[in-house]
Amino acid sequence: MDLDEVVDTIRTGPRGPNIGAFFDFDGTLVHGFSGVPFFRHFVRAGRLTPREIAGTMLSGIRGGKSEQDFARFIDLALSGWAGHTEAELETIGNQLFQKRIAGHLYPEAWRLIRAHEAAGHTLVIASSATRFQIEPAARALGIDNILCTPLEVVDGVLTGKVAGSALWRHGKAVATKEFAEAHGIDLPRSHTYSNGGEDVEFLSLVERPVAVNPDSHLATEAKTRGWPTLRFKPRRSPGPVTAARTIAAIGGFAGAVVVGAGTGVVSRDSSRGRDRVIAHTGDYTLAMAGIDVRVVGEHNAREPRPAVFAFNHQSELDMFVLAKVLRDGFTGITKKELASNPLLGPVLRYMGATFVDRSNTAAAKEALRPVVDTLRGGLSIVIAPEGTRSITPSLGEFKKGAFHIAMQAGVPIIPVVIRNAGELRWRNGTAIRSGTVEVAVLDPIDVSDWSADDLNDRVAAVRQLFLDTLLDWPRA
């Protein structure tokens, strides 16, 4: 069974909050083990002795077959946490999520979560990990309920020990049943997802469990029991091939700028040169990076023009994707910090981009005034209503600037929904991975009858279009 089939099953199945969707965390929602960044943090901080480091690594390699084995492993792993306050661990957890863990969240899992959310299901993460590992991801994914291994705290300070039992194997199944009973969840008709063989009991609580990225034990159990299996693309560390592609993409970008700008100089037509830069940067950069672009609604990228093209922003790749899809006849609005970027700054200035200080609302509004004239002069604008890149596939709140501009210039808003760009070039990553970016250019939205009185509702409706498209991707 593939992901689309599982999502269709969710959509056509029972709805409402009495249906639960219970997700394991490590290996199911996030690639790898979220405890590793914490372990490395405390090793670097000198909070673990060489003996503790060796013991933890040896215990992890050997694995465990019982709750007692796992308890010994987690006691070793948590020994470096002793003496820290809960507030300190929360800060460390948030920092590690931003820098590392967010980049390992599976976009496929995000789709599952959104499908369950749309069906009104109660979302729960059930994991042997601690709340400090899980909570930042849960907030980003929109999951309010967490079942996790409790830690012992004395006077607000962690002792480095587990308080009671870890949520592993039988403990996770028991905690899930107790949560279901306390919240009126119809457990048999609910959904469970996990990757580990230790979670067979947890998965068996429902009639429709799904094995996600199963280990060898769970793969055998799933096959024997007829459970559906999903495989998500692993988020491995960049290798030499990825590094080479990243360097090649930078070279492709530079070459595209030279060729395009050269056309403008030779022809003595600066607008032609800018259009060539746009088209070439999209084509050359993505080709050298090994990235394909699959477009739905391509006719909407051609007309009507001029227009305000509003896109969801996840990656530095977005500008190249937009260049490939839109081809010519547009400029952009971007953060002022890029003006000083030695690679992008000169190119963006040549393209006539508007640089906005996002920290100064008054200055930002003033900087956007000339953009209305740009649109009235026939040049389209691309802008990200979120204002900044997201570190997860989640869609941020929309600011109103793009919509005010369209209303004042009397041009339509055209939503451009981008999927997978953040997976290929994560916001806090350094490498570009090969793959396919999917783009849906939606139908133009006429803003001629919009007013300041109904703008909040109008903007919310456009944002919902993005959410609906990301959840139910249109077919070509």
TrEMBL record:
<feature type="domain" description="Phospholipid/glycerol acyltransferase">
    <location>
        <begin position="307"/>
        <end position="421"/>
    </location>
</feature>
<keyword id="KW-0443">Lipid metabolism</keyword>
<dbReference type="InterPro" id="IPR023214">
    <property type="entry name" value="HAD_sf"/>
</dbReference>
<keyword id="KW-0444">Lipid biosynthesis</keyword>
<dbReference type="GO" id="GO:0016020">
    <property type="term" value="C:membrane"/>
</dbReference>
<keyword id="KW-1208">Phospholipid metabolism</keyword>
<keyword id="KW-0378">Hydrolase</keyword>
<dbReference type="InterPro" id="IPR002123">
    <property type="entry name" value="Plipid/glycerol_acylTrfase"/>
</dbReference>
<dbReference type="Pfam" id="PF01553">
    <property type="entry name" value="Acyltransferase"/>
</dbReference>
<comment type="similarity">
    <text>Belongs to the 1-acyl-sn-glycerol-3-phosphate acyltransferase family.</text>
</comment>
<protein>
    <recommendedName>
        <fullName>1-acyl-sn-glycerol-3-phosphate acyltransferase</fullName>
        <ecNumber>2.3.1.51</ecNumber>
    </recommendedName>
</protein>
<keyword id="KW-0808">Transferase</keyword>
<dbReference type="InterPro" id="IPR004552">
    <property type="entry name" value="AGP_acyltrans"/>
</dbReference>
<dbReference type="GO" id="GO:0016787">
    <property type="term" value="F:hydrolase activity"/>
</dbReference>
<dbReference type="GO" id="GO:0003841">
    <property type="term" value="F:1-acylglycerol-3-phosphate O-acyltransferase activity"/>
</dbReference>
<dbReference type="Pfam" id="PF12710">
    <property type="entry name" value="HAD"/>
</dbReference>
<keyword id="KW-0012">Acyltransferase</keyword>
<keyword id="KW-0594">Phospholipid biosynthesis</keyword>
<dbReference type="InterPro" id="IPR006385">
    <property type="entry name" value="HAD_hydro_SerB1"/>
</dbReference>
<dbReference type="GO" id="GO:0006654">
    <property type="term" value="P:phosphatidic acid biosynthetic process"/>
</dbReference>
<dbReference type="InterPro" id="IPR036412">
    <property type="entry name" value="HAD-like_sf"/>
</dbReference>
